[in-house]
User: Which sequence fits this backbone?
């Protein structure tokens, strides 16, 4: 191994291969001990040039009895171990001389200076011979940073065998997986698995299990990991096989959970075994901690993850701020309860309520210090605007501004900007009042909301042209429309945009205006507009990133155009191109049969170094391209390669689990879906209350479907009813719940639960007659349940009158027509939805479904 280290890493120093000299070993040995200094110096030079044979000689000479020969042999041995040669730059030689004479801190400093000069190979060799643990600890931190860069450099350069040997020098988990991935790429994985299985040292065992993770057979991995005592590999493999038990068992025994987390975990384990007495004891313990200020948040979250929704709201509501309860009720579409929580019995603004809230808000503003004011007016404004009551919402915001002004609060522009985030349409009406009645400068106001970017400044100049004589409200609405959904009529907005486009093209420097218009279109996500401005910029002979354009062609499934741009891109060959970018290009090029596609796919995998996070990105690329089975394969592979699945704060793990769970539900792999949903629900810690409840819904839904698949109908019906009862108004029910029930033949249960949801949503529509979102939610549930389609279509027509370009509403209308069996209209509406947000992979999935899939079951 020592000789291999020298040979492998010498090239990284930039020195040539060491060439053997001429003299025999015995002669050189005599020369080293000569009384003549010149002879001794010549002997050292000769030995230095001996290459690999010198290591053998020097190892023997350094163990001899002659002190001078021993000292010189040790010096030469160190030089050869470090890959040095007579051609090594003198500054490197001097640095190493200082290194071996330095203190701990001095060694660390000199080691880091090698990083600055990109002497990565020398760093690794120096680390391999260092003995001081204090120095090694700091070295390892630096190596963890630079080794991936060295490895990528070798992979990009095609030095695969050298890269493989380099990975043998490191035994951290990332390097083990990278090594296994490289063996797989080289077609050597099976042979390496066979070789490593025969070895007994701990490093070989770890490398063996990494190779099994990459091989991808969870049953073999679990058996071998259990044999070798790797708990984390057992947990990962078990999860991939639909068994979350080993993970929960490990968490219960590992000892790092908080008290409440421990109670909640024990409740989960008791539920899985049907131990109701234990469940009650753990529930009582968690209830006790709800009133404990240090544990109350965690206890409340645990109750929600257990599905104790009404208990949290009813029994412990006073222990939590109204803000949390308010948003939770809104997230559950319990709109009438949310309205009452802010003091209104009906959807009508009353003077008495306004006066009361105004007094509380004013009092809060007058508290000394930087105190967060009450936002009751803003909450009410958001509520009213979301239900089509813009005038009422504007009145709430105006009263908030008046209270701040009366209190002489210095943060008015902060409140202007904050109001827009709560209720954009209503806030613009209220802000227009500030301009007209209180002499607020319109330009300053726009900058406070949108910042002072070049694009905003350009737009202000265009819209504030006095010749147009636009009102301040129209200017405010048009600026907002350029950034998102139009807040003026579609015809007005498109007319203004067309005029600005034509004016830009007529200017001496059209690039400025066109680039701003492209940025605005990109912010809106409107695919056809993005490509329009790309084309105009190219026609005007201005530079444009071809990968940006290629990505948007691919988003719209214009694969021929996207492939031409990807194939012509030099950037994908550069060191800056990430594995994800290269792989995305490969997926698109493969769509057109370009052989470069397969090459890029292989290159992306090679550069990914087998890392789970990269495989998760690859899974998303396949999903975006409609290659759903391939996407599921990559999510499963990514899961097997995660070092640990017990870390709830790992965002990349969360993304992989989410993708794998979605895929498992789509292919109706219910055992896998149950395990993933249980892990996902457990891992939710900082999520909103709505997501905590949805996590529990997902667990019960998947358990119910698995029980139905096994013919355990009593358990199936119980779990499915419980799942539905948690979120009876939630549009999430439409995604998979209702379609899966019909597919499983549970039509009677399906109709019972749908009618319950439908009536609750009708109640919202009756109470809030202008609530376009409630009408859309009804339409979405009805279309996916394939029930009440005429009623749903009528509601959607009303919603689209208010928001004609809402991609969500357009997609719901497409779903209604698809359920009715009208493919042509479904595709027409879906095309409009997908174009509104061309990067949304879910909308694109819907579009493919409407084009290609059979009509839904009745």
Assistant:
């Amino acid at each position: 191994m020592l000789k291999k280290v020298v040979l492998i890493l010498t090239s990284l120093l930039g020195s040539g291969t060491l060439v053997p000299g001429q003299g025999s070993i015995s002669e050189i040995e005599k020369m080293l001990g000569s009384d003549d200094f010149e002879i001794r110096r010549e002997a050292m030079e000769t030995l230095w040039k001996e290459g690999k044979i010198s290591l053998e000689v020097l190892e023997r000479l350094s163990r001899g009895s002659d002190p001078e020969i021993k000292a010189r042999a040790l010096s030469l041995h160190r030089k050869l171990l470090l890959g040095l040669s007579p051609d090594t730059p003198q500054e490197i030689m001097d640095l190493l001389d200082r290194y071996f004479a330095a203190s701990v801190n001095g060694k660390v400093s000199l080691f880091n200076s090698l990083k600055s000069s990109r002497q990565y190979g020398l760093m690794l060799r120096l680390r391999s011979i260092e003995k001081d643990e204090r120095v090694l600890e700091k070295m390892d931190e630096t190596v963890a940073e630079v080794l991936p860069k060295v490895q990528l450099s070798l992979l990009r350069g095609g030095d695969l065998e050298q890269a493989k040997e380099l990975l043998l020098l490191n035994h951290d988990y990332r390097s083990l997986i990278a090594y296994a991935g490289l063996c797989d790429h080289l077609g050597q994985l099976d042979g390496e698995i066979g070789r490593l299985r025969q070895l007994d040292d701990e490093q070989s065992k770890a490398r063996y299990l990494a190779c099994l993770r990459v091989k991808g057979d969870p049953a073999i991995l679990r058996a071998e990991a259990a044999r070798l005592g790797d708990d984390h590999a057992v947990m990962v493999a078990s999860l991939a096989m639909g068994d979350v038990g080993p993970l929960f068992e490990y968490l219960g025994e590992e000892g790092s959970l908080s008290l409440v987390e421990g109670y909640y975990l024990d409740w989960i384990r008791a539920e899985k075994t049907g131990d109701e007495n234990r469940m009650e004891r753990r529930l009582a313990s968690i209830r006790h901690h709800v009133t404990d200020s240090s544990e109350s948040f965690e206890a409340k979250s645990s109750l929600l993850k257990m599905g104790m929704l009404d208990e949290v709201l009813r029994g412990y509501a006073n222990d939590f701020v109204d803000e949390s309860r308010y948003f939770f009720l809104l997230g559950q579409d319990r709109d009438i309860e949310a309205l009452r929580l802010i003091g209104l019995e009906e959807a009508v603004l009353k003077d008495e309520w306004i006066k009361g809230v105004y007094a509380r808000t004013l009092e809060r503003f007058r508290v000394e210090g930087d105190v967060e004011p009450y936002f009751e007016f803003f909450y009410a404004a958001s509520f009213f605007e979301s239900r089509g009551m813009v005038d009422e919402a504007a009145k709430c915001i105006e009263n908030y501004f008046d209270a701040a002004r009366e209190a002489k609060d210095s943060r008015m522009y902060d409140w202007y900007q904050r109001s827009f985030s709560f209720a954009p349409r209503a806030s613009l009406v209220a802000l227009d009042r500030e301009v007209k009645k209180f002499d607020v400068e319109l330009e300053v106001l726009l900058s406070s909301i949108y910042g002072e970017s070049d694009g905003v400044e350009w737009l202000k100049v265009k819209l504030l042209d006095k010749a147009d004589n636009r009102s301040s409200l129209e200017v405010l609405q048009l600026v907002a429309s350029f950034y998102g959904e139009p807040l003026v009529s579609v015809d007005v907005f498109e007319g203004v945009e067309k005029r600005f486009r034509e004016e830009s093209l007529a200017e001496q420097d059209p690039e400025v205006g066109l680039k701003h218009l492209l940025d605005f279109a990109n912010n809106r996500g409107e695919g056809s507009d993005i490509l329009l401005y790309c084309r105009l910029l190219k026609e005007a002979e201005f530079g444009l990133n071809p990968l940006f354009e290629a990505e948007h062609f691919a988003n719209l499934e214009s694969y021929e155009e996207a492939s031409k741009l990807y194939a012509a891109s030099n950037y994908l060959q550069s060191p800056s191109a990430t594995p994800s970018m290269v792989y995305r290009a490969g997926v698109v090029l493969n769509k057109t049969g370009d052989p470069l596609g397969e090459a890029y796919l292989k290159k992306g995998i090679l550069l990914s170094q087998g890392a789970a996070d990269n495989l998760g990105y690859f899974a998303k690329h396949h999903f975006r391209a409609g290659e759903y089975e391939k996407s599921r394969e990559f999510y499963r592979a990514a899961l097997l390669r995660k070092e640990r699945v017990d870390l709830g704060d790992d965002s990349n793990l969360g993304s992989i689990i989410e993708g794998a769970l979605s895929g498992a539900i789509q292919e109706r792999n219910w055992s896998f879906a149950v395990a993933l949903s249980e892990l996902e629900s457990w891992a939710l810690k900082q999520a909103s209350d709505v997501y905590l409840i949805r996590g529990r819904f997902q667990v019960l839904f998947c358990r119910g479907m698995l029980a139905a698949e096994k013919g355990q109908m009593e358990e199936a019906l119980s779990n499915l009813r419980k799942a539905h009862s948690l979120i009876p108004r939630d549009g999430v029910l439409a995604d998979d719940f209702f379609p899966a029930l019909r597919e499983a033949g549970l039509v009677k249960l399906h109709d019972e639960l749908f009618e319950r949801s439908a009536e609750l949503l009708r109640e919202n529509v009756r109470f809030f007659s202008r609530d376009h979102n409630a009408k859309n939610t009804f339409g979405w549930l009805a279309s996916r349940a394939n029930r009440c389609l005429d009623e749903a279509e009528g509601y959607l027509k009303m919603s689209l009158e208010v928001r004609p370009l809402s991609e969500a509403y357009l997609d719901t209308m497409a779903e209604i027509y698809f359920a009715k069996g009208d493919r042509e209209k479904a595709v027409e509406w879906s095309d409009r939805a997908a174009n509104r947000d061309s990067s949304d992979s879910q909308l694109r999935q819907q579009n493919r479904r409407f084009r290609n899939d059979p009509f839904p079951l009745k």
User: Anything to note?
Assistant: The CA atoms of residues 358 and 403 lie 7 Å apart. Residues 317-440 form one domain. Residues 1-23, 316-321 have pLDDT under 50 and may be disordered.
